[in-house]
Amino acid sequence: MSKVSMNDLDFICRIECDKSLWEFEEIVQSNEDVVREEYIDKIEKGGKAGNYDFIVNLAKNGRKIPIGLAQIWSYNDYRKSWEIGFAILPEYWGRGYGGESAKLLLKYAFERLNAHKVVGMCNSNNKYSAALMEHIGMVREAIFKEELFWKNKWTDQYYYSILEKEFFRDT
């Protein structure tokens, strides 16, 4: 993974505005200019605003091929809690890249950001995201009943977490 840079803006706009990639989200931004401006602002702040964005790269023939996006942001600053999010292009699904990226986010959170807890949330219909969070050691703590208005109906959201002591115990 590498921190997002200005050189990644075209890829980010492509991935963030791809409605098929964000099938389980309530809202997907379709305006690339809005996405571009948001990321320019984030890049210029250098992560100081409690947001860290990374491009998931595949090393092939001596070059990096962007295949996804991995993010971590401050969920509750006072409690030292961070939230993770990730997306891998469909043609790279099922190869472990999402899990590897999510593990790196956890490592970054606990070793670099001094996190006490990392959380992740997903639409209850998103079985792959739920399975990935469980695979990396996160535990489903709650089900937020009818939390998301998705596909014109109220849908549950799963809430996962892992504590610092659990992460270091399992590594």
Task: Give an overview of the whole structure.
- The protein has 171 residues and is of the alpha+beta class.
- It has one domain (2-170): Aminopeptidase, CATH 3.40.630.
- It contains five helices and seven strands; from the N terminus they run βααβββαβαββα.
- Helix 3 (97-111) links the parallel strand 4 and strand 5 (117-123).
What string, H for helix and E for strand, traces the elements in order? EHHEEEHEHEEH
CATH superfamily: Gcn5-related N-acetyltransferase (GNAT)
CATH overall fold name:
Aminopeptidase
What structural category arises from helix and sheet content?
A: alpha+beta
With strands numbered from the N-terminus, the spatial order across the biggest sheet is 1-2-3-4-5-7-6
Residue ranges: pLDDT <50 for 5 or more in a row?
A: none
Overall pLDDT: 93
Beta-strand share of residues:
35-45%
Largest sheet: 7 strands, mixed
What is the second-level CATH architecture?
3-Layer(aba) Sandwich
Radius of gyration: 16 Å
Helix proportion of residues, in percent? 25-40%
β-strand number: 7
CATH class (first level) name: Alpha Beta
Question: Short description, anyone?
Answer:
The protein has about 170 residues and is an alpha+beta fold.
How is the topology of this model organized?
Layout: E1 2-3, H1 9-16, H2 32-45, E2 51-60, E3 63-76, E4 81-88, H3 97-111, E5 117-123, H4 127-135, E6 139-150, E7 153-163, H5 164-170
Parallel strand pairs: 4-5
Antiparallel strand pairs: 1-2, 2-3, 3-4, 5-7, 6-7
Helix pairs in contact: 1-2
Features:
alpha+beta, 5 helices, 31% helix, 37% strand
